[in-house]
Amino acid sequence: MNTVNYLRISLVDRCNFRCSYCMPTGEAITYLHRSEILSYEELLFLVGEVFLPLGIDRFRLTGGEPLLRRGVVGFVRALVGLPGVADVSLSTNAYLLEELAEDLYAAGLRRVNISLDSLDPGVFARITGRDHWHKVWAGIQVAHRVGFDPLKLNIVVLPGINEQEVPALAALTLDRLWHVRFIEFMPIGNTGYFEQAGWVDSEALRRRIRERFGLAEGTCYGNGPADVFQIPGAKGTVGFISQMSECFCSRCNRVRLAADGFLRPCLLNEADQIDLKTPLRAGAGAAQLRELVSELLLRKPEINFRERDRGTTGSYGRTMSQIGG
Ligand code: SAM
Ligand code: SF4
Description:
TIM Barrel, single chain, binds iron/sulfur cluster, binds S-adenosylmethionine, 325 residues, 33% helix, globular, alpha/beta
C-alpha cells in the first residue's frame, strides 16, 4: 500500500460556476449552512493535531470554489506556517484569481491547479454555464506573472464538446512552463450527463497529440495520479488522469475532507466516509480523532476503482463540487 500523506480539504461546497460534468443539470443544489462548515480554527486544529501527526503533511485546498470562502488568504498563511506542513496547493476555477493571486502568493502559496476546459469563450460558457472565459484567462495570466510554479491547467475532456481542442490545449505547454492535465470524465456529479455524453480515454488523446506534435515516449514524470509526458522541445508537460481507463489505486496517496467535516478514504467510496465534525464539536480530544482517522486509513487499501464496478462501495449522494474533486 502507498503511504497516505496528502489531504484534499474542501473549504466550501458552493460554486459560482455550474460545470456540466460536476453538478447535476437543472436540479436545485442545497448548500451547507455556514454553521455546518468546519471553521478555519477547526481545520487548523485537525491539520496540526490530527493529520500532521499521522504523517499527512501535503494539503490541497479545493471546493466548490475555494476562493469564494471569505478569509481564504489568511487561512492559507496560517496553514503554510504550521510547523510540519510540507506543501499547500489550491484548485480553483480562477474567477477570483485576478484579484487574489498576489495576496495568495504573498501568503506562501506556490502551486495552483486551474480548471480551463476550453480556449473558446463560447465553448467555455457552454461547459461552465458562465460567460467568464476572459476573466478566467486574465486570472491565469496574473497567476503566471506572480510566479506560481507549477501552474497546472485541468481539462475534463467531453466528447464532441472540447475534445477537438486537445491539441491546442496541449500546445499551451510549448512555450510556457505550464502543465496541462487532461482528465477523463467520471460519473460523479452529473451521472445523467455522463451516461448521455460518455468519455474519451487518455490513450486516444495521446494519439492525437502525438500525431500533431510528437510526444516523448516513456517520459513519465508522475508522482500523483497523472501520467506525465512532454511534447519534444516544450517547456511544460502534458498529463493524463485516467481513472476510467486505468486503475491507479496502488499509487493513491490521498484522502478527502469535505467542508462539513466528512472524511472519505477514496473518491469512489462514500459508504466508508467518517464524520469528524460531530466528535470534534462534542469535545473529542486529538488522540481520539487520530484514532478515528487511523482506522479509516487502515480501511483504505480494501477500497478501489474495481470495487466500484462490483457495486460494493455504495452510491453517491455527493457531487464533485461537494467532494472537492
Ligand atoms: N472549483 C475548483 C475547480 O474547478 O478547479 C475546485 C473544485 S473541482 C470539483 C476540482 C476538480 O474536479 C476540477 O479539476 C474538475 O475539473 C474536476 N471534476 C469535477 N467533476 C468531474 C467529473 N465528473 N469528472 C472528472 N473530473 C471532475
Ligand atoms: Fe465549480 Fe469547479 Fe465544479 Fe466547475 S468543476 S462547478 S468550477 S466546483
